Amino acid sequence: MPVPWFLLSLALGRSPMVLSLEKLMGPQDTARCSPGLSCHLWDGDVLCLPGSIVSAPGPVLVPTRLQTELVLRCHQETDCDLCVRVAIHLAVHGHWKEPKDEDEFGRAADPELEEPANAFLQAQVVLSFQAYPTARCVLLEVQVPAALVQPGQSVGSVVFDCFEAALGAEVRLWSYTQPRYQKELNLTQQLPDCKGLEVRDSIQSCWALPWLGVSADGDDVHLVLDVSEEQHFGLSLYWNQIQGPTKPWWHKNLTGPQNITLNHTDLFPCLCIQVWPLEPDSVRTSICPFREDPRAHRNLWRAARLRLLPPQGWQLNAPCSLLAEATLCWQAPGGGPCQSLVPPLSWANVTVNKTLELPLLNAHPNLCVQVSSWEKLQLQQCLWADSLGALKDDMLLVETRGPQDNRSLCALEPSGCTPLFSRASTRAARLGEGLLQDLQSGQCLQLWEDDLRALWACPMDKYVHQRWALVWLACLLLASVLFLLFLFKKDHVKGWLRLLKEDLRAGAAARARAALLLYSAEDSGFERLVGALASALCQLPLRVAVDLWSRRELSAQGPLAWFHAQRRQTLQEGGVVVLLFSPGAVALCHEWLQDGASASAPHGPHDAFAASLSCVLPDFLQGRAPGRYVGAYFDGLLHSEAVPTLFRSVPVFSLPSQLPDFLGTLQGPAAPRPGRLGERAKQVSRALQPALDQVLKAPRDPGGPGDGTRDGT
């Protein structure tokens, strides 16, 4: 991971972000040693060939640490280049042995010497340097008297001056000996640019550089460029990712002083700003000012997406790299927290935008992946819920294996892992013997194992059926008694049934069909139109869910998690998902269909439509959409032919002209007779028309650089 150079300047007093550098005159490379060592720098560069590791014949000198310092190499007082000085700290590796011949001591000062106390140690240390487009390797010979050698202790250091590098470049250093006795040392560092150094008078390429400042004003951020009126320069905003190449976001060529405004929803920790004069071979300066901004980190997690890829892959998509920890967990039906499992998925393996493998033998719908940051749960996704089905009422058994084939079993419950043969008053303890028989007879599914542990999922269907058999018998007996009462007291029962029918009608609203509305947040007028439609549908009755009424949950959970929970609940209850198409929604659909999820930029924190496409599109592509989805668009805002062909596999209605058919499809089998349905359609149309007229009359605003991410608030 690159080390920021500005950390070196924290002790510089009033100007901690500006470094004053030592100047070296002349073009020659040099080397010098600490007292007690002698060293020599070979002329010219050598080939970078580390070779394989060999065993040390005795005590040898090896590099233990690399240390760097920035200096200036100057041809004249005002003609300098940035240069990296490297200090290599050395120590003794190995011990003296009784010599069989002179070669046991390495290269001796005198071949006739036999006592190690009169010998010396010599090492050839290679120092490798890479900074695009430059690559160099130099060879340093170092000697230390054997009498001063203490095995395992440091003997001093050798300093090399110096490797020239470009401003703002990333440099990589390696050091090893020839022959190589251990793994090579390496160091990666990011060099500062003109703004971070006190070099504007020494490096000519910095003379005409535009200077950039960043200031905050409420929710907005201002980029202030202080240049002359006539100067032409380029400005680029990009996402700087450690894992993978940079991603450009916005670029313009500008002239003169500028003040550019960014919305707070556009901020990400890896959002960097690069500016350079429009001249040949000009130096570019870059800053990434939002790395510690809390708003940028909140936006990053809202834009992050956790995807599970069959058969056993998972991927964390985000604009920037994330320091996160991923774990497997077991989600029991009926809610409650997801319980963490072994094996853990180490945070070091959480690589953004890269497919990773889950260490599982078999998949199960109750297995989920959680992504946390600083012990706070950020994302959770269960394994391919669409393909594996709903959560199962299975019992997870944790097997622990000991020596001599000893093993113990416990069942994972909300209270913890309960031993199968304990006296606890839990379901697992009561069914312990039966669960053990199921495991031994092969009725349980093995999910994972290593040398010491294993996970098993055992179905509980038969135990549930046994428990409910007596309940069903009691219900049948009660029904028989009620039927006999009906025969003997027919008139009284009729009156009671009339009252019961009225109660059922009164409670129909509470059991009405669920409908989830998904739309793309075009502007405030379109949101009012969607709100008017949702309010009118609630009077039918329908139980309507829309992100306009759930902003708090949406901000807390994120759009994808909110949509996933609402979609699962709606479909499990036999409801329907309504896709409201608009010009913006159609554009998003085409974007996903052409380039996939990796091509879409992050949207606003409340845009559930953009977040839901990763789950909605597979249903249409795999033919699972009919009966679960309905499409609609508003008259005058969109033509029927604009709806993508893929979504025409389900009914698509024009509103309000096709409201009766639309309402009948929403209510399904519970829809009223045609006359009553027509009256309800007129009521919805009257509620919808004023908001639709306002949207049709309102002008459409084009977006600028500050509108790159739509905000749903």
UniProtKB/TrEMBL annotation:
<keyword id="KW-0395">Inflammatory response</keyword>
<comment type="subunit">
    <text>Homodimer; disulfide-linked. Heterodimer with IL17RA. Heterodimerization with IL17RA is independent of the cytoplasmic tail. Associates with non-glycosylated IL17RA constitutively. Binding of IL17A and IL17F induces association with glycosylated IL17RA. Forms complexes with 2:1 binding stoichiometry: two receptor chains for one interleukin molecule. IL17A homodimer preferentially drives the formation of IL17RA-IL17RC heterodimeric receptor complex, whereas IL17F homodimer forms predominantly complexes with IL17RC homodimer.</text>
</comment>
<dbReference type="InterPro" id="IPR027841">
    <property type="entry name" value="IL-17_rcpt_C/E_N"/>
</dbReference>
<keyword id="KW-0675">Receptor</keyword>
<keyword id="KW-1003">Cell membrane</keyword>
<feature type="signal peptide">
    <location>
        <begin position="1"/>
        <end position="20"/>
    </location>
</feature>
<feature type="region of interest" description="Disordered">
    <location>
        <begin position="667"/>
        <end position="713"/>
    </location>
</feature>
<keyword id="KW-0325">Glycoprotein</keyword>
<keyword id="KW-1015">Disulfide bond</keyword>
<dbReference type="InterPro" id="IPR013568">
    <property type="entry name" value="SEFIR_dom"/>
</dbReference>
<dbReference type="Pfam" id="PF15037">
    <property type="entry name" value="IL17_R_N"/>
</dbReference>
<dbReference type="GO" id="GO:0005886">
    <property type="term" value="C:plasma membrane"/>
</dbReference>
<keyword id="KW-0472">Membrane</keyword>
<dbReference type="InterPro" id="IPR039465">
    <property type="entry name" value="IL-17_rcpt-like"/>
</dbReference>
<dbReference type="GO" id="GO:0006954">
    <property type="term" value="P:inflammatory response"/>
</dbReference>
<keyword id="KW-1133">Transmembrane helix</keyword>
<keyword id="KW-0812">Transmembrane</keyword>
<protein>
    <recommendedName>
        <fullName>Interleukin-17 receptor C</fullName>
    </recommendedName>
</protein>
<dbReference type="Pfam" id="PF08357">
    <property type="entry name" value="SEFIR"/>
</dbReference>
<feature type="domain" description="SEFIR">
    <location>
        <begin position="512"/>
        <end position="664"/>
    </location>
</feature>
<feature type="transmembrane region" description="Helical">
    <location>
        <begin position="468"/>
        <end position="488"/>
    </location>
</feature>
<dbReference type="GO" id="GO:0030368">
    <property type="term" value="F:interleukin-17 receptor activity"/>
</dbReference>
<keyword id="KW-0732">Signal</keyword>
